[in-house]
Structure formats: C-alpha cells, structure tokens
Amino acid sequence: LVAQRRPGGVLRIVRYSPSDGVLDTVFEEPDHHSFHARAVAARPEPDGRSSTVRPEAPNGKLFGLDVYESDTVVAGLPRGSARRLRVIEGVPLKGPELLSAEPTAAAGRSSRMFRRLLGEAPVEEDGSFHIDVPADLPVQLQLLDGDGVALASCDWIWVKQREFRGCIGCHEDPELTPPNRFVEAAKRPATELTLTPERRRTVTFVDHVVPVLQGKCRSCHQHDGSRLALAGLDGTAGRLAVYRDMLGAAGSEIDSAPGEERPLIRPGSARTSPLIWRILGRAGGGAEGRAAESEAGVATDHRQLLDNAEKTVLIEWVDLGAQWTSGASLRAEP
C-alpha cells in the first residue's frame, strides 16, 4: 500500500504491484490527503516500556538541542538568525464554528483549524530551546528572526502529561545520534507557556488588522486605482473585498502569471509576503517552502508609517494563517 498523488495534488492510498506496475485504488477522499497506510490486522501485544507519563499532570516539556541541525527546513541559516520560538495552539473547528471561517475558505484557504498564541521562548546561542506546554494540545513551533518573522514552521505536534519530548534539530536526519553535550536551554527551567484558554490571544483581520489599515494606511490607499484600495473598510462587504484582494485568488500561491502582481500576503509565511517586505523595508527569503525571489529596490518609505506594535500585528496575522475573525462561537476551551 502506497500513497499516490493524483492530478490536482491530492494524495490517495493505492495498492501497487511492482511486478507489472498496476495501481488499484484502496481509499481516497477528494478534498483530503490520505497517506501513511496502516494494516488493519491482529498483532501481538507490544513490548512494555517504562514511562514518565502521569495522567494527573497537566503539562509536558518540549526541548530542542540545536534548531540549526536540519536536513531541509532551516539548512543554511546562519547561526544567531533564529532569536525566538513562537508556539501556536491549534483549535479544531466544528459545526457552527466553521461559519466564522467562511471568508477564509472562500479565498482558497483551509479553515478547519483556528490558531491562537501560547507565547514565545528564547532560542539560545547554541540553538537550543526548552518549553513547558499543556499536555494533549496540538501545537505548532515557529522559529523567529529579529523582526518576529517566522523563518520556518513545523507540523502539529503535542506532548503527553509529564512527558519530556525532544529533538536533535528541526527536521533533522532521523538517523542522527544526539550529541553528548549539555545544551544551554537545559541549564535553566523550561519557559512556561501554559496560559489558560481564555488568556490565549489570536490575531485576525477583522479584529486587529482592520484598525491598523484604517489608522495608518487608508489615507493613501483610498482609490480603486491603488494596489490596495481601502475605501470600504467600514463595512463587512468592503472588508471582505480587501481581505480577498490581499490574499489573491488562490491565497497560498507564491507564484504569479507573467505580468501579474503576486498576492500581497502568503498565509502562514510572512517571510515570503510582499506586504511584510514593504513594512520592514526589505525583501524576504524562503526558509519555509520554496524561496521567494528577492524584489529589487523594495521601497523603504513604509517602514516609518507603523510602530513596532502595529508591525507585529501584521506579521503575526500572516504567520498565523491570515485568519478572518475569531467568531462569536469559538470555544474557550482547547
């Protein structure tokens, strides 16, 4: 059983015969990837092993020995470029909660996971980190540069109660043996990122980005002839039009057809988003996914328009997936 990519990019499970090359479909869902086939069969009871997990403990620990140790994602990053670690909570959306994400879906974005911030932790000079997070909670880790822009992101992971889970690096070679050294982050207590659900904040277009655009950007971007027309920000329909314009038709593509302007943002990657290039006065590269080519002569006049807090709003909004709104029906609990 293997995973095969169909035209359009969706993976399905097929039975493959090496002798004659025949493929028979076993399982597929048109709108979802299907991979990592598992045999459904009786198996002997697995070997027992010791565990530090305690069901009554509310948290667990994650640590990394060296974020620069990588075979793909952050390979080639200069040491010292990763300053902080951002930790994001994933809240699965179900039923009525999906309604608040409809504009996101209409712009070509997946809308089944809402993202909130658990906080940030330092990345030490040797590339190590050490955090304490709630158990059984899906979290995503992002390495941040000095401007708070994500250099790379990992997939969803979690820890069990009182578990100590660690990695050698960020998507490192799985056959590596950990170096026998005492990393800097382990010399101090873990950074506690254990905010209660009601204190976990998020950044959305309606609640946080619109006020920045109204206060600092609309006076110059009033007309339809400008790259980003902001005249209609006071109404829901106008805000949705601006939101869709910023994401572009696909919302997640970094390439544009010849002669067309690329979307202003790439959801989930502020580093490859032209909007963020403008407010920082520099073009970004792509440690996450394909690299975006540098734009020659990125205008620096926008750097002075926003203060650091407003820049952070836009950067976090993009890196968290460019969410439309939190919605009144979102759950308070994880």
Secondary structure: elements and pairs:
Blueprint: E1 2-5, E2 11-16, E3 23-27, E4 59-64, E5 84-92, H1 102-106, E6 113-122, E7 129-134, E8 139-144, E9 150-153, E10 164-167, E11 191-192, H2 205-217, H3 236-247, H4 274-280, H5 308-319
Parallel strand pairs: 4-10, 7-11
Antiparallel strand pairs: 1-2, 2-3, 4-7, 5-6, 5-8, 8-9
Strand content bin:
15-25%
Number of strands: 11
**N- to C-terminal distance:** 35 Å
Largest sheet: 4 strands, mixed
Q: Please trace the helix and strand order, writing H or E for each element.
A: EEEEEHEEEEEEHHHH
Task: Please give the oligomerization state of what you see.
Answer: single chain
Radius of gyration: 22 Å
Structural class, from helix and strand content? alpha+beta
Average pLDDT, all residues: 82
Number of helices: 5
**Which residues sit in consecutive blocks of at least 5 with pLDDT less than 50?**
105-109, 250-259, 286-297, 328-334
Helicity range: 10-25%
